[in-house]
Automatic annotation (TrEMBL):
Residues 14-270 form the Protein kinase domain. CDD domains: MIT_2, STKc_ULK3. SMART domains: MIT (SM00745), S_TKc (SM00220). It comes from Apteryx mantelli. The lineage of its organism: Eukaryota, Metazoa, Chordata, Craniata, Vertebrata. It comes from the Eukaryota. This is Serine/threonine-protein kinase ULK3. Transmembrane segments: none annotated. It is found in: Cytoplasm. InterPro entries: Atg1-like (IPR045269), Kinase-like_dom_sf (IPR011009), MIT_dom (IPR007330), MIT_dom_sf (IPR036181), Prot_kinase_dom (IPR000719), Protein_kinase_ATP_BS (IPR017441), Ser/Thr_kinase_AS (IPR008271). Keywords: ATP-binding, Autophagy, Cytoplasm, Kinase, Nucleotide-binding, Repeat, Serine/threonine-protein kinase, Transferase. Its EC number is 2.7.11.1.
Length: 468
């Protein structure tokens, strides 16, 4: 294997220059294609001696398959060559270095930045999973960044680990056990699910600045890996409940209880649907077209809900756009839509208040008729408290919970209520309350989308939306 200080190997079509990195199995050099284009590439030199289990021929067949893979978040394998000692992989050059360096320079990453990276990683893993390929060696060193500015994550080093056992001939572990799933280290028996554990470790390290099994000595590390204690998450920095939930479910020691690939791709913190992609802007625009139509027709609440759904795509679209002028144009539009959504919101609020007042007389009659039924009385009281709270305009989350509790009770009571006037009134009241609760839920969602839109605007103005 090439070592630091050695002259780079010679390749017919390329001029090899500086060493970019040395990993577990290979040394990687920056290189230029000799012919006309002078294209910059990275050449990875793998020593044939590090290959075991399967013959070199099988590996070459596998590389042939990897060559056909094209994905925006996977390092492109352009070509390969070999001689008596080495296999040379000619790859796309990633100028942003690797994720381990990126995290170290910043100590920790804000949840929002970590989430964008995680979404890109999930996107690459989904693609590999659909092609039945496991990585088996996921770690920040194997995740590269396309460029120092506005970096896109690029997964590297996949598809080879299966030809290279994590143990060498003397049964000494190769690579870093910090990122390996416990079953890989302990039982020497594992499958694709080890990749999900490693994703958990990478996310943990990005958010807390060190991997969960960080240790001062090998004995301490071994103890942590072999233990059956649940992985505890530090209480700081504060993270969203979705983010904590995902970490906990990825870092589950038992591969049978660990989150599955499908659950991971659909997890609310990953939310692949709303990740910055070339489609974000198209989706946002078609929703906004519908919103404008409803707005013109005077359907205020439908228009509002569509504007908010559109904003959920505009935010990632803003992140995705790298051209400064186009970004500015999107930003101006988003500003307009936010203002319009706010106007509509004020209108909807007005409407709903008058609706609320109209519903009152029947409610009072029902209360009269409930006097000999303490349980019904209490449930109706709770509903009134929710309405009062809503009118005050205080904590919507609490109000919604109150609505839901009272509705739960009222539905149980309705099931046992005999036919008659009281049942009719109760039925109508439940429907009215359900509509209120639904409406409140929509309000909460819309507010979230709007504040996300505003935050993204402010953020993009501050930093032109790079991930710095
Ligand atoms: P190994 O299989 O030996 O672990 P890697 O493919 O992970 O080798 O490469 C080792 C290091 O070289 C990486 O951690 C990274 O820092 C650097 N590197 C690898 N590929 C590229 C590339 N395409 N562009 C830029 N740097 C790279
Ligand atoms: Mg590597």
């Amino acid at each position: 294997m090439a070592r630091a200080g050695w002259a780079p190997p010679r390749l017919d079509e390329f001029i090899l220059t500086e060493r970019l990195g040395t990993g577990t199995y290979a040394t990687v050099y920056k290189a230029y294609r000799k012919k006309n284009t002078r294209e910059v590439v990275a050449v990875k030199c793998v020593s044939k001696r590090s290959l075991n289990r399967v013959s070199v021929e099988n590996l070459l067949t596998e590389i042939e398959i990897l060559k056909t893979i094209r994905h925006p978040h996977i390092v492109e394998l352009k070509d390969f060559q070999w001689d008596s000692d080495h296999i040379y992989l000619i790859m796309e050059f990633c100028a942003g270095g690797d994720l381990s360096h990126f995290i170290r320079m910043r100590r920790i990453l804000p949840e929002k930045v970590a989430r964008i990276f995680l979404q890109q990683l999930a996107c690459a893993l989904k693609f590999l999973h659909d092609h039945n390929i496991s990585h088996l060696d996921l770690k920040p060193q194997n995740i590269l960044l396309s460029a120092p500015e506005n970096p896109q994550l690029k997964l590297a080093d996949f598809g080879f680990a299966q030809y290279m056992s994590p143990w060498d001939e003397k049964h000494v572990l190769r690579g870093s056990p910090l990122y390996m799933a416990p079953e890989m280290v302990c039982c020497q028996q594992y499958d694709a699910r080890v990749d999900l554990w490693s994703v958990g470790v990478i996310l943990y390290e990005a958010l807390f600045g060190r991997p969960p099994f960080a240790s001062r000595s090998f004995a301490e590390l071994e103890e942590k890996i072999r233990s059956d204690r649940v992985i505890e998450l530090p209480s700081r920095p504060r993270l969203s409940p979705e983010c904590r939930d995902l970490l906990q479910r990825l870092l589950e020691r038992d591969p049978l209880k660990r989150i599955s690939f499908e659950q991971f791709f659909a997890h609310p913190f990953v939310d692949m649907e709303h990740m910055p992609s070339p489609e974000s802007l198209g989706k946002a625009t078609s929703l906004v077209v519908e919103a404008v139509k409803k707005d013109q027709e005077g359907d205020v609440s439908a228009a509002l809900s569509l504007y908010c759904k559109a904003l959920e795509y505009f935010v990632p679209a803003l992140h995705y756009e790298s051209d400064a002028r186009r970004k500015e144009a999107i930003r101006a539009k988003v500003g307009q839509y936010i203002s319009r959504a706010e106007e509509l919101k004020a209108l909807v609020m007005c409407d709903s208040k008058s609706l609320l007042r109209q519903a009152n007389p029947a409610r009072e009659i029902l209360k009269e008729m409930a006097k000999d039924k303490p349980r019904l009385c209490a449930a109706l009281e709770m509903a009134s408290a929710a309405i009062a709270k809503e009118e005050e305009g205080k904590d919507d989350g609490d109000t919604l919970e109150l609505y839901q509790q009272s509705l739960g009770e009222l539905l149980l009571i309705l099931a046992a209520e005999p036919a008659g006037r009281r049942r009719e009134l109760l039925h109508a009241e439940i429907q009215a309350l359900m509509a209120r609760a639904e409406y409140l839920k929509d309000q909460i969602k819309m507010r979230e989308a709007q504040s996300m839109g505003k935050e993204a605007l402010a953020e993009s103005v501050r930093s032109s939306c790079t991930l710095q």
